[in-house]
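Q: Convert this sequence to structure tokens.
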Amino acid sequence: MIGEVLDEKYKIEKELGRGGMGTVYLATHIGTERLVAVKVILPEFVRRPEFIERFRREARAAGRLRHPNVVDVTDFGIARTSVGDVAYLVMEYLDGCTLAEVLEEEQKLPLSWTVDILEQVCSAVHQAHQQGVIHRDLKPENIWLEPNKRGGYNVKVLDFGIAKLEESPSEEIGDDLEVSNVGVDTTNPIAVEKTSALSEKETLITDAEFSEKATVLFSSSETKNKIEKRSSGDRDLTRAGVVLGTPLYMSPEQCRGEKLDARSDVYSLGVVAYRMLSGRVPFDGDFSEVIKAHQEKEPPPIEEKGIPKAVKAVIYSALAKKPEDRPQTAQAFSAKLKTASEGIGELLQKSLVIYSELFPKLIFISFLASIPGFLFQTSRTIFEVLGFLEVIKRSIAPIALIEVLSFFSRHIVSAMLLGMTTLVVAHHLVLPLRPVKLRSFFRLIMSRIKPLLLTVFAVSVLSWIGIIFCIIPGLVVSVLFLLAPPAIVMEKTNVRQALRRSMELVKRSYQTAIAVVLISTVVPVLFATFLSVVSDSLVEVHMLKKTPSSSVEQGPNTETQVNPSRAEFAEDTRLDRKPPRERDLRKIIVNYVFQTFLSLVLILLMPFIMVLTVLFYFKARFAGGESLQDLTTLFEELEIQRPEWQKRIQSKQLSFDKVKT
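A:
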């Protein structure tokens, strides 16, 4: 068909790939001279309505989707040519290669690459699921990597030819017309073809009518006897005409011919992830063995080093035999995989980035929170000095009262600081371009101050009790209830619900929770210890400088001679370098200076620790497949509206969705 013009619009330039029922060509749109890819179905198949329906299905499936990670289908029709009537599908022409080609050469990919690619794939698949489209053929051959001109790759999900559409009864063709796969030349992903069958229980891999080496997955025993059986790896089994292609990535329910939903695609994504990290598929060999293994056997463990156990656990969960045991959406699978791949190092890095970006706001909040502590410390020092100088009567009562008030003020300040930091970080994640309104945040915190204070106070008391009796129980309490305050702020829970919610979130990433607690406690203690040692050393050095030193006389033979009377005097002065009164007063002043300096350090340090805790809260939410969409309502309650341009985009998207519906 080289040189043919379809419907006076598309001039065929050259062949890109060939499959069992048609060919993909590079073509030029005559009106715009833009290069496009045109998939053409052969004339002998145009006369069969199931193949036209297959093409119509692919066009409608792709047409429903407007997503940067889905190949854009722009036209569909039937044209008269010199070889007869042909059906064609027009889509964007892509540079790059398939994931299958990359894996064929590299065997396996680094974790960072795997997570990035699957994150984009899952975004496209989740959008498809929301539009009622189930792909049913997710595999490396249908994942396209296109250079983005910035050193990375944009991912495109291809070939919705066997996608199952959830249509209205008037549009539904019926369960007796479902589509399956055809083996193809996988050198070009757009050339990957499919055929149709009469039912999901008769899903075709390839069909003898279209390929000499075709096989039928669920067919008569006579047809099965004609199958060329092989036991080979992923590279061979996914080629045209070889026994196993798509079955390597099929879910157990798809193997059984049952009705599919979005969780079937999640299983296929789990197989793809397994393949990318381990260099092999979970099950291979004869097609009947693979089909049986998908339904009955557990996948072999991933033995490759450098892959966190949490990542492996997420992949194993996606490969669960029962759909209800898998992540329920592609978005949830992506979120869990991404958070499992990020350890404390990535969390610290992100915390530092957000801390630097929000530095003025965070320091302002921290400074205001430090004022009560500074005032209590100053009051205590004044009482101690006045009592020491006998200006007022020395008494323990005022100092004890100050300590009690200081204890409660620290918890109030901690609750306020953590609550405000939670809202500031959440605002930065959800509405990064809108100004931060601290007054609105303060009003929200005050509306939830009672459960927030009770939670902070209860966690603190339980932690200290555990530390007093044994350090380990105190740390366990701190870890389990670490995320209770953010839960109070973000989820409007009471104290008991917040404590339960914290345990639920922490269980998703115990190791990171322990690391966050250790950083939150060890770092301030190290700073305080360092400053205490430095201050004590300065006092000792200052006192020694004012102590008379022993007199040393040199004899004629350069031997040291010590005057006994002066040595005794020096020894006496070392035993009592300064009068007790002056020494104690100096210690009071130095201690006040030390506490003030420590407060200044904590003003800078505590916001970073709070940001780290809040980011871990969101990380734990993502690990459970939860999103930030519900937070939009929270900020609308605070009268923090999204920009007008965002509202217009949302309005247009809603209108577009209504039209499609």
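The chain has 24 helices and 15 strands.
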